[in-house]
Specification:
326 residues, alpha+beta, Rossmann fold, Chorismate Mutase Domain, subunit A, 5-stranded antiparallel β-sheet, 4-stranded antiparallel β-sheet, 9 helices
Length: 326
């Protein structure tokens, strides 16, 4: 639990800064009394308490406190409001701090109700990968459409995009005729369109040319926060064990035609991906296991005929601890 000393005047400053940015009800809700951060809580018990009351209590009880001198630098917008603007406003309207606090509570209450309503709606129009169905959005009015996109993104605990971002997502991604190549980036995430759905994904950096020699007695940490590979006696994907002098190489780029277990004929890798339902942006994230220069497996997805385990052959179990859903 973390306690913060934000008070009534701090909340008023936050409200005005949100107005300056053109925020809607979500931004004008300002700072909450209690906020969940994982398993912990961030609590602001003084949000509705006037700063002068807190000062009097501190002086009366001789409590030591620290003054941050940077608080007097009016180059910062919050300090400018506190030192130059709000004293004038408060002199004219003594209840201004309380009034903005009430407005922030009303906005927060409205957001709470809207979130409850739209949470149920979004659950009904997204697939098992939490992708959003575009066809439904085309049937509703534009205001509701934008709001659903915003609330859908918000469920991933991603900083809410601007109204301009949301318009771009709708006009340039959702309504585009291009499929997997359609995407927009904001912050550390990107929105992709594929097969009539919108997907929100972390930005994927290019690792196509990476090759890793894996010493299988050690856990292998994969690049780009993909996850890790390790040999596990109890569980994992079962493969033919490499021969004594064979090198195990991990790659992420694959082209060409392959004969995989479960298919009668060799197929182009693009067709294999499509038939197995692997989304385009995941195809270069799944580790490819080679023994020397022969592809054995796309771990967790398919095994080639080179990876067939014949009678009396040794086998290994590879556990892929991945940070994404295949």
């Amino acid at each position: 639990m973390l306690l913060l000393g934000h008070h009534l005047q701090d909340q008023c400053e936050t409200f005005l800064l949100s107005l300056k940015r053109g925020s809607g009800p979500s931004g004008l809700s300002c700072m909450p009394f209690i906020k969940n951060i994982g398993k912990n809580y961030l609590i602001r018990p003084f949000l509705n308490i006037d700063k002068e009351k807190i000062k009097k209590y501190i002086l009366k009880n001789k409590i030591k406190y620290i003054i941050d001198n940077s608080n007097y630098n009016i180059k910062f917008d919050r300090n400018f409001l506190r030192l130059k603007v709000l004293p004038i406003i408060n002199k004219r309207w003594p209840n201004f701090y309380i009034s903005t606090f009430k407005s922030s509570i009303l906005c927060a209450n409205q957001e709470f109700i809207i979130n409850k309503i739209f949470k149920k709606k979004i659950l009904n129009i997204q697939n098992n990968k939490r992708a959003l169905l575009i066809n439904y959005l085309k049937k509703i009015n534009l205001i509701k459409c934008y709001l659903i996109i915003k609330k859908w993104i918000n469920q991933f605990n991603v900083k809410i995009p601007t109204f301009k971002n949301i318009k771009t997502i709708w006009n340039e991604i959702a309504l585009s005729n291009i499929n997997s190549k359609s995407k927009i980036k904001f912050k550390m995430y990107q929105i992709n369109k594929y097969s009539k759905y919108l997907y929100l994904l972390p930005i994927i950096y290019n690792i196509k040319n990476i090759k890793i020699n894996w010493e299988i007695d050690k856990t292998l940490i994969l690049p780009n926060n993909i996850g890790k590979l390790k040999i596990n006696k109890n569980q994992g994907y079962i493969l033919r064990a490499p021969q004594k002098n064979q090198k195990i190489i991990i790659k992420f780029l694959i082209k060409g035609i392959y004969n995989i277990i479960g298919k009668e004929h060799s197929l182009n890798i693009k067709k294999i991906w499509k038939e197995l339902g692997i989304l385009p942006w995941l195809r270069n994230k799944i580790p490819l296991i080679y023994y020397d220069n022969k592809l054995i497996s796309c771990i967790g997805v398919f095994i080639t005929k080179n990876g067939v385990i014949f009678k009396n052959e040794k086998k290994i179990k590879i556990k892929f601890i991945n940070n994404f859903k295949i």
